[in-house]
């Protein structure tokens, strides 16, 4: 007959992982051998530990929910629980209390040589520099390898020695009393900071750290097509680690400065071109000084209307790591003269006389311009 694993923990069959954990933790506090030496309690503890192991394994729990026992064919059982889940007090604390070392074992010392940290530097680029790519000469202030001891941290021919406080273990242990009895905890050694060794005669320049802070110049190659917020990685140009450890990486973050003419939208560029009313009616050619291609002609078609957009294909920004380029979009602003002299006024009146049908009028909802301003206003009111 299959065992009632849910009953052993005192939870419902639809219990969540958190509910399973709370139930097991409560029973462990009552039944663990370090707290309750009674043999019956020890046997009960092994049963609830087995139940917790089974129910926190999705495949084993599925077998239980189907009416089977996942441990029957594997030789397991309440009496055969061998610690695959939580066999001892150290494992209980490892799972529930953040990994304190309660088993009495010692961790290996971390050693003096550690990898260095990454560094971040920001640099400002013009739109043209983002478009063509550039090599920026930057000043960085990071930890570099000590040129006196070359990372050893020692003075002359002296050598590091084993830490007397921790005996080379890199950690010190202490015993504390708790509701579960005596609990052994471990923390990094305050003398050697977990390295397991000390330097009695440190380097006079770096003080035993194996590195010193220095300001240096580096050349950062910036590829064409970068934009604000992007980062260029320079391998091994960051902080040298303690003990002369491998240097981290340096990341150069791009800050793109605004341009006087163009506004960038991804790989596309936008600009505004002011076109006199007569040129918009007759058509003309405008020269735009583009970022990459220099002066380029833009053709304004006859009869161009206000707010139209004329596109120069392939005259935008280059796509990063690609030969393709975005577009240049010219937003056409039709300029109507605000002041006319007598001769200009007479000419326009003559033109108006030749265009009798061109009259100002109020458009209705049924007009062919239903998609214009009136339609947008109507849509905004109907959405109330």
Give a quick set of tags describing it.
384 residues; alpha+beta; four-stranded mixed β-sheet; three-stranded mixed β-sheet
Characterise the protein shown here.
- The structure is a single chain.
- With 384 residues, this protein is α+β, with helices and mostly antiparallel strands.
- 23% of the residues lie in helices and 26% in strands.
- The strands form six sheets. It has a four-stranded mixed β-sheet. Strands 1-9-8 form a three-stranded mixed β-sheet. A two-stranded antiparallel ribbon has the order 2-7.
- β4 and β5 form a beta hairpin.
Radius of gyration: 38 Å
- Please tell me what the overall shape is: elongated
Question: Strand arrangement, largest sheet?
Answer: 10-11-15-14
Instruction: Report the biggest beta sheet as strand number plus sense, adding barrel if it closes.
Output: 4 strands, mixed
Mean pLDDT: 83
What is the number of beta strands? 15
- Secondary structure: helix percent: 10-25%
Structural class category? alpha+beta
* Uncertain segments: 73-105
Measured between the Cα atoms of the first and last residue, the distance is 67 Å
By oligomeric state, this entry counts as single chain
**Beta content:** 25-35%
Count of runs of 4 or more consecutive helical residues = 9
H and E string: HHHHHEHEEEEEEEEEEHEEEEHH
